[in-house]
Amino acid sequence: MEYIVPLEAKVAVLCGGMSSEREVSLRSGKNVLGALQRLRYKNAELVDVSSNIMNDLKGFEYAYNTMHGKYGEDGCIQGILEILKIPYTGCGVMSSAICMNKEYTKRVLSTCKDIPLIKSVFVRKGEVVNDKVAEAGLKYPVITKPVSEGSSFGMTKVNNPEELQKAYDEALRFNDDVLIEEFIEGFFVTVGVLGNQGNEFATEILEIRTKTEWYDFDAKYTKGLSEFIVPATGLSKEATERVKDIAVKAHQTAGCSGVSRVDFMIKDDEPYFLEINTNPGMTDTSDLPAQANVMGIDYDHLVLMILNSVGLNK
Ligand SMILES: Nc1ncnc2c1ncn2[C@@H]1O[C@H](COP(=O)(O)OP(=O)(O)O)[C@@H](O)[C@H]1O
Ligand SMILES: [Mg+2]
């Protein structure tokens, strides 16, 4: 595989940060640093991102971004790196900001007719939630989501209009804007997208079967509550190809670069788009390394591919 970043380059592995996903990011960072060292990048170092980041980045020539959530995955750190003219991996300012917000992602993707979006309504703080859901004609059950959280935080499955206000109030604890979607009674899959602009390709699909009603916070972080199947077995051959195609189209339509992971629900062999994660986890138990691994891209190779996505103004 090609080395685009010179081996002697000073590479900052950005991790940690100030989001609720700080701990996961520190684990991602450590794993990525290990891979860079095995790839013979001897001047790679971990940088735990704080408000002193402008100073901490002095002397670095490239940045490998392994931050998740607020400030790391939403365009903020990408903006700082643009100003400092330090080429960085993965998505740029605009696509990071769009994809951090589930409503704005859907607005952008609605311009591509091939991406199946779940019927939903966007409700701002102060609006009458029951009226908005009724006006939009959503069928129950629905699911309430803060527009820019991860890890299923603040989300509730709502079975009838009487339960709606409480669920909406819960989502408002996280963000002032709430996305309410029809609930898809199906199973969850996720697929990675790799490669540089114009040459993107999808990884194998990872399917997650949960013992809980949906893939909520507990299912995500309690051992034994979910089963991972990769490559996925619950989809027909045609649906498998469709999910991969839609993932690449979603990545391209949102202006992503280098890497992303696209989530879907599957019902009756039909995919429904959920969200794009612009900086997916890179721990040894994360989804993307497993998806890449089953197609013959081992962890170090994956890190090199992502490193090769460095650039500015993307
Ligand atoms: N419309 C929906 N219907 C059914 N399940 C959903 C729906 N939206 C989300 N979920 C479930 O909630 C989980 C988290 O949703 P997602 O939109 O991916 O947010 P997060 O950013 O928290 O990962 C999904 O993995 C899926 O299991
Ligand atoms: Mg998700």
Structure report:
The chain has 11 helices and 12 strands. By secondary structure, the protein is of the alpha+beta class. It has 3 domains: 80 residues, Rossmann fold; 142 residues, ATP-grasp fold, B domain (D-amino Acid Aminotransferase, Chain A, domain 1), CATH 3.30.470; 63 residues, ATP-grasp fold, A domain (Dna Ligase, domain 1). It has a 5-stranded antiparallel β-sheet. A hairpin with a 2-residue loop joins β11 and β12. α1 crosses α11. The longest helix has 17 residues. It is globular. The model has no long low-confidence stretch (mean pLDDT 95). The site of magnesium ion has 3 residues, from β12.
Label the CATH architecture of the largest domain: 2-Layer Sandwich
Bound molecules: adenosine-5'-diphosphate, magnesium ion
The number of domains is 3
Widest sheet: strand ordering: 10-9-8-11-12
Protein structure class:
alpha+beta
The CATH topology of the largest domain corresponds to D-amino Acid Aminotransferase, Chain A, domain 1
Output the CATH homologous superfamily of the largest domain.
ATP-grasp fold, B domain
Q: Quick one: biggest sheet?
A: 5 strands, antiparallel
Helix content: 25-40%
Which class of the largest domain in CATH terms? Alpha Beta
Q: How large is the radius of gyration?
A: 19 Å
**Poorly predicted runs of 5 or more residues:** none
Cα separation of the termini: 23 Å
| Number of DSSP E strands | 12
